[in-house]
């Protein structure tokens, strides 16, 4: 089992920045991939960014150049730095890990509005 605790969401104006954190505990040795997903009202959950073993990263096209996923192994934490936020980035953001199973965090709300 892996437990995930997310933090860092909030309300920000367009063009602003937020950093999301995902702290993992439990069977973290088995984790191979950590990702951030988001789900906007009335839409399907979508993959935003992933970081894999070896530091390989993936970003969906709409966030390339604006979001950065990173990992602090000493703190068992993965971050999503979000810059130049747009209203269409508004969603609940979920942390996800894949290891001996797949685990989700509780979600954190990001609202981009003036």
Let me know the number of strands: 11
Helix content: under 10%
Q: How do the helices and strands follow one another from N- to C-terminus?
A: EEEEEEEEEEE
| Number of discrete helical segments | 0
Coarse structural class: mainly beta
Strand content: over 45%
Low-confidence segments, given as residue ranges, are none
* Alpha-carbon distance between the two ends: 40 Å
Mean pLDDT: 95
- Let me know the largest β-sheet: 7 strands, mixed
Rg from Cα: 13 Å
The gross shape turns out to be globular
Polypeptide structure, described:
By secondary structure, the protein is mostly beta strands. 0% of the residues lie in helices and 57% in strands. The protein has strands at 2-7, 10-12, 18-26, 33-39, 46-52, 57-59, 67-72, 77-82, 91-99, 101-104, 108-112. Strands 2, 4, 5, 6, 9, 10 and 11 form a 7-stranded mixed beta sheet that branches. Strands 1-3-8-7 form a 4-stranded antiparallel beta sheet, with no helix packed on it. Strand 5 and strand 6 form a beta hairpin. The radius of gyration is 13 Å and the shape is globular. It starts with a strand and ends with a strand. The mean pLDDT is 95.
Which tags fit this structure?
114 residues; 57% strand; mainly beta; four-stranded antiparallel β-sheet; seven-stranded mixed β-sheet
Q: Strands, helices and their partners?
A:
Blueprint: E1 2-7, E2 10-12, E3 18-26, E4 33-39, E5 46-52, E6 57-59, E7 67-72, E8 77-82, E9 91-99, E10 101-104, E11 108-112
Parallel strand pairs: 2-11
Antiparallel strand pairs: 1-3, 3-8, 4-5, 4-9, 5-6, 7-8, 9-10, 9-11
